[in-house]
Amino acid sequence: MTQAPAIPQATRRRHDREIVALAVPAFGALVAEPLFVMADSAIVGHLGTAQLAGLGVASVLLTTAVSVFVFLAYATTAAVARRVGAGDLQAAIRQGMDGIWLALLLGGAVIALVLPLAPGIVDLFGASATAASYATTYLRISALGIPAMLVVLAATGVLRGLQNTKTPLYVAVGGFVANAGLNAGLVYGAGLGIAGSAWGTVIAQCAMATVYLLVVIRGARRHGASLRPDVAGIRASAQAGVPLLIRTLSLRAVLMIATAVAARLGDADIAAHQIILSLWSLLAFALDAIAIAGQAIIGRSLGANDAQGARDGCRRMVQWGIATGVVLGLLVVAARPLFLPLFTSDSVVKDTALPALLMVALSQPVCGIVFVLDGVLMGAGDGPYLAWAMVITLAVFAPVALLVPTLGGGLTTLWAAMTLMMTVRMATLWLRARSGRWIVTGATR
């Protein structure tokens, strides 16, 4: 974001309309996704403690396996949006099909690994013998739906790149409703137990993938785009995704280190940490929605050779990110007395969480800038820089976080380290945005 005159009011309004039109449906779709696990937990929880424990282990493994491949959505959004900006819808959809074919290949590879290794993977989490059997059953069945889940990621990226975030919202809501109904029917009506919950999720995910494929195929036929797999295109999609994979793995490592450190602080600290982390993740959905809008808008602007439009869009979205972060921070402060009793009645856990929640509240404006600039650089296809920036952030965060127990710090100190992590991310992303080196125009980067 190099120095530039103030954005004209008419341009600001246009950007605001676009951001709202893309971000609001994207937020709805993002919130709908975790509801899958919540619905499964609510239904399976009535079967017994061992079944719920097994679901807890399996769902974490499943969510982690899928989230690692979130680059399928991010990279596809940027690539498709560029071609939309260039006015080549045929190439845009062709690019999207390459991402979908890559998703199918990766999904097949994950199934081949998970099915035979499921018992061993579950054992690594230290589940009891009873819970482990339920976890293995759920994981093996649910793994069959991973290709569909990855297709959903890639196809969501296609539609976002086409500036369409409403269809993903409708599909996500429909998928949630179908998942809840299928789970209830198969678990209790058919008497399949936890296996019924897994099959319900697989069927719902396959239905969602089918709807997405029908939408993309219809667009491909309308614009004369080939549906056949293209080896060069699939390889290019994979290469574009590698830096984003490194970024995602580094971010997952940050969260794992934070949880491991919290566990070393004591039972009350890890319990409070899990509560705070769930809130932090919920707040991230609101900020990530703006980032998704950024991916689509920036990619389209650069594809249209509109460098100034990309700069103006970046500046306006940063303003949105800061404002949203301030609002979220104030909401956290105001809702603290109401939020914690929803999760625990333990006064020790509440007392541990309260000051750490203040740290989360203070960090929200920083988080707003980070999420937005992350989305801007993803939309620009600046994956290699994002990878290196996140690796540097991990290198700074890890030793600081690991020193927290040694120096006698508590959970608030740990979340201060998390705030430091976000501040380092903000600095690296801000420097890149100001440099303007991310502004590479054209249908391809």
Automatic annotation (TrEMBL):
Principal location class: membrane
Molecular function via GO: antiporter activity; xenobiotic transmembrane transporter activity
Gene Ontology CC, one term: plasma membrane
Highest taxon, organism lineage: Bacteria
Swiss-Prot/TrEMBL keywords: Cell membrane, Membrane, Transmembrane, Transmembrane helix, Transport
Tagged with keyword Cell membrane: yes
Subcellular location: Cell membrane
Protein name: MATE family efflux protein
UniProt lineage: Bacteria, Bacillati, Actinomycetota, Actinomycetes, Kitasatosporales
